Amino acid sequence: MTIIETKNSEHYKWGNNCDGWHLVKNKTLSIIQECVPSGSFETSHYHQHSHQFFFIISGVATIEVDGVIHTLKADQGIEVKAGQIHKLSNQHNKDLNFTVTSTPPCHGDKVNV
């Protein structure tokens, strides 16, 4: 077994200077750690099949789910079911670090709205 950390995980860039690391990436489960700088955001979207759970490590996340805005701080999380329209943003001064767990993996499952 290998200890998994961002240093030895597949890294990618997304959005406007956001970082992501695939901590677990297989056919049934995806766990990604992401860093979103202040002022960065993703577009509204949903997943046809993927069920997701966002868990905040540090910073403050603003997540809109089906038109309802939620503010999450460190050690808080939110579940987003398949089909729910959602959008995450960092509207605060510090970097936002969180994990997103998806089952099945959401790659290729995203529908922008």
Percentage of residues in DSSP E strands: over 45%
User: Quick check: average pLDDT?
Assistant: 96
Rg on CA atoms, Å: 13 Å
Number of strands: 11
Strand-and-helix sequence, N→C?
EEEEEEEEEEE
The helix tally amounts to: 0
* Overall 3D form: globular
Secondary-structure class: mainly beta
Biggest sheet strand order reads 1-2-3-10-5-8
Q: Helix amount, in percent?
A: under 10%
Ends distance: 40 Å
Low-confidence segments, given as residue ranges, are none
> What is the makeup of the main sheet?
6 strands, antiparallel
Q: How does this structure look, described?
A:
- With 113 residues, this protein is an all-beta fold.
- Helices cover 0% and strands 53% of the residues.
- It is built from no helices and 11 strands.
- β1 (10-14) and β2 form a beta hairpin.
- The chain is globular and about 40 Å long.
- The chain starts with 9 loop residues before the first strand and ends with a strand.
- The mean pLDDT is 96.
